[in-house]
Amino acid sequence: MTGEDIMGFVAGALVTFSLVPQIIRVFTLKSAREISMLFTGLMLAGILMWLGYGIFKSLFPVILWNAIGALLVSMLLYAKLRYGR
Amino acid sequence: MTGEDIMGFVAGALVTFSLVPQIIRVFTLKSAREISMLFTGLMLAGILMWLGYGIFKSLFPVILWNAIGALLVSMLLYAKLRYGR
Predict the structure, then answer these.
(1) C-beta atoms of A47 and B15 within 8 A
(2) Could you read off the pLDDT of B6-64 as tens digits, one per residue?
């Protein structure tokens, strides 16, 4: 792995796992009023498309980060449906 | 452009622009209590690393989406600093 590969790997990890504290915050507060439903829906749709793109092109890091990302955004969507409004 | 290229392009647009309704929501409510500071900070750090990766590797779509993304997450960070807590 080159330095650039490592940079891409760390960048993907940061962006994907940034969702974890957001999910924890919403579940801790038991409130997701400020979370935009459109944000959650568009993000999930985009991540699923990236996942499909990664599968078609056999790009392992794209598949990995977006599979984890899809799971995390689904949890945020669940929180929004449960605690939103 | 192949169908896969278009898929990657649309996927990037969806994920990046999903931030727009979230930013609008926080500014409309004038409240960002539920937005996690760690989410915003990690996301911004990750996007800036993707931007650097795109510049090093001369990947135009990576540069484009992450430059727009960095701008959008900065607006969310501003909202968090102004309306958070």
Answers:
(1) yes
(2) 888 899 999 999 999 999 999 999 999 999 999 999 999 999 999 998 899 888 888 99
- Does any CB of chain B come closer than 8 Å to the CB of residue A17? yes
ipTM of the shown complex: 0.88
Beta-carbon pairs below 8 A across chains A and B: 123
pLDDT digits (tens, 9 = 90+) for A42-73: 999 999 999 998 899 888 888 999 999 999 99
Does A3-83 carry CATH code 1.10.10.60? no
Structural contact between residues A44 and A74, judged by C-beta atoms closer than 8 angstroms: yes
Q: Domain boundaries in chain B?
A: 31-85
Q: Write phi, then psi, for A58 (nearest 5 degrees).
A: 50, 50
Chain A interface disruption, residue of B20, B27, B39, B59, most A CBs within 10 A: B39
Of B48, B66, B43, the closest CA to residue A18 belongs to: B43
CATH class for the region spanning B31-85: mainly alpha
Q: How far apart are CA A62 and CA A59, in angstroms?
A: 5
Task: Inform me whether the C-beta atom of residue B4 falls under 8 Å from chain A C-beta atoms.
Answer: yes
- Record: contact B35-A22, CB cut-off 8 A: yes
